[in-house]
Amino acid sequence: MFIQIEPQSDTPIYAQVRNGIMEGIVRGELTPGDILPSVRSLAGDLGVNMHTVNKSYHELESKGIIRIVPKSGAVICSPSEKIPTHRLNQISVELRPVLVESLVAGMNEKEITELVTSIILNVKGE
User: Fold this and answer.
1) Percentage of residues of the chain with pLDDT beyond 90
2) For residue 61, which of 18, 13, 105, 118 has the smallest C-alpha distance?
3) Using one digit for the tens of pLDDT, what is the confidence trace for 49-65?
4) What is the rounded CA–CA span in Å between residue 113 and residue 126?
5) Model confidence at 81: pLDDT above 70
6) pLDDT value of residue 2
7) How far apart are CA 108 and CA 43, in angstroms?
8) Number of C-alpha atoms within 13 angstroms, CB side, residue 118?
9) Which string of b and e fits 26-54 if b means at least 16 CB within 10 Å?
């Protein structure tokens, strides 16, 4: 698993770690049942504070992406067949301001769709 931290980024480091893990799952580098490195180990590898990695892991757990098992570690969960309605609503709430900003900036529906498709392909490494 490769996570690149950009300390000068406007994105908080815990979010970079969280996003890096999610991208690793999308690319197939991490699969359901895989155990993530311990908080201490990943923090050391990335050169970040343990609390930062811990916050990332807990966010992933709250999203249902990992399961934290005491004394065993953080395990990648299998994706559910259907996204629960509450999670779909949460994704919609988080995505809405970005889409509105895109429309305000002058993008049309086709341009937004092409941009989203481009991002998906990039994340998947295609």
Assistant:
1) 84
2) 18
3) 999 999 999 999 998 89
4) 17
5) no
6) 85
7) 41
8) 6
9) eeeebeeeeebeebeebbeebebeeebbb
Residue for token pair 């709430």: 93
Token look-up 């916050």 returns 55
Coil vs helix vs strand at 32: coil
d(CA 103, CA 106): 5
CB of 17 closer than 8 Å to CB of 3: yes
- The DSSP string of 58-70 is HHHHHTTSEEEET
**CA distance linking residue 111 with residue 102, whole number of Å:** 9
Query: pTM for this one?
Result: 0.86
Q: Can you list the positions of beta strands (E) in 1-126?
A: 66-69, 73-76
Q: Which of 38, 15, 18 is nearest to 26 (CA)?
A: 18
Q: Please state, in angstroms and rounded to a whole number, the distance separating the CA atoms of residues 94 and 91.
A: 5
Q: Is the dihedral of CA 55, 60, 66, 68 positive or negative?
A: positive
